[in-house]
Write a structure and sequence with these properties.
The protein has helices spanning about 5-15, 20-35, 35-60, 65-70, 75-90, 95-105, 115, 120-135, 145-170, 180-195, 200-215, 220-250, 255, 265-275, 275-310, 315-330, 335-360, 370-390, 395-400, 415-430. The protein is globular. The protein folds into two domains: about 5-335, Hydantoin permease, CATH 1.10.4160; about 360-435, no CATH class. It has about 425 residues and is mostly helical. The mean pLDDT is about 85. Helix content is about 75%, strand content about 0%.
Amino acid sequence: MSIQKNFVIGLMLFALFLGAGNIIFPPLLGQMAGDELFIAMIGFLITGVGLPLIAVLAIANAGGGLETIASRVNPYFGVIFTMIVYMAIGPFFGIPRTATVSYEIGVVPFLPDSISGSNWPLALFTIVFFTITVALALNPAKLVDRIGKVLTPVLFLVIGALAVKSIVSPMGDIGQAQGDFATNAFFRSFVEGYLTMDVIAALVFGIVVINALKAEGVTESRAVMKAMVFAGVVAATGLALVYISLGYIGATSVDVIGIQDNGGAVLALASTVLYGPYGTMILAMTIIFACLTTSIGLVSACAQYFEHVFPRNSYKTYVFIFAGFSAIIANVGLTQLISISIPVLLTIYPLAIVLMLMSFIDKSFGRKPIVYILALLATAFVSIFDGLKGAGIDIKPVNDVLAHLPLYEQQIGWLVPAIVGALIGVVLSPLFKKRI
């Protein structure tokens, strides 16, 4: 396959990753990091770009999707866990959120006050949004052309317009670091990058890219791996450039707009300062295009997976089902969606990371399920209570014990137990039959 085609597939992967959350977060980080922006951005890029890139390579290395890796634990676990991940990042939370964020930032600012609080504009918008999603997702073989060649360049242009203007005519000097960023910028940003949840997205989107490669005639495993590495590097480079640009916008905005509560407000006010009345329009285009590409990718990925598990229905049928269900859920509203999704994602995200990392080294222990099982059980014990805590359910006796774990307060308390569980599994593995 030509370098040009590889590059287009890389652009498609970049666009699939770049949802609204990825655009909104860096400006706020820039405001909070201030003169510690350089150190903070390194920490964020490691977890916000590095881990998703590794996840894409894990999918390529496994030669299949998330289920392929998860089935190394147990075939039933492979199906159940993969379905949970797809439903969480798909029709329950991820897909509806693309519509609600688009509406809140790309539409609400242009609505008259008399109707901005009504429910029907959101309902109308979600119908239009998911109609476009369905139209572009119905033929997954054309995702490369539709996203990589059309939507991604537009996305680059609107983000580039903000970034270039902020560099040529900065709003002000870089401000002072705020709160924890003043004393621990690297690790605070490292943790914030972990909370972007892009690792799960990578495990979902990886199979979309593999199928796109197969549609281009790339089927040999070494060729697929090579193309996936190239696409992953292109996507990671694009993400890094966007994060750095938006972080710089936030860091130079404090003198003019003050410290804001969220990245959406930072971007909205900064866009107006940089481009006047046209700034809000540029921001609206950025958010809508970013959310649309992510929505298309998630709908396509979910439809492909469920067609694989339940082939009784066709891919197109699942596209309509997931888009329609997401349109209904989206009308719950952004705030409610986020509050419900956080506990679920805090529970399953660490499990996905452990699965991903172990997939690179599992040949060293013969892919024996006992190693996976003990590592995941130890991870789940901590992540489940993280999820409960995120839902406002504080089981104090357990949390008091878990608080002694390294990095527990940063929501990475599962890391040491996962390593210990894996090591115990390796020690016990000679007692179990090999499974290659």
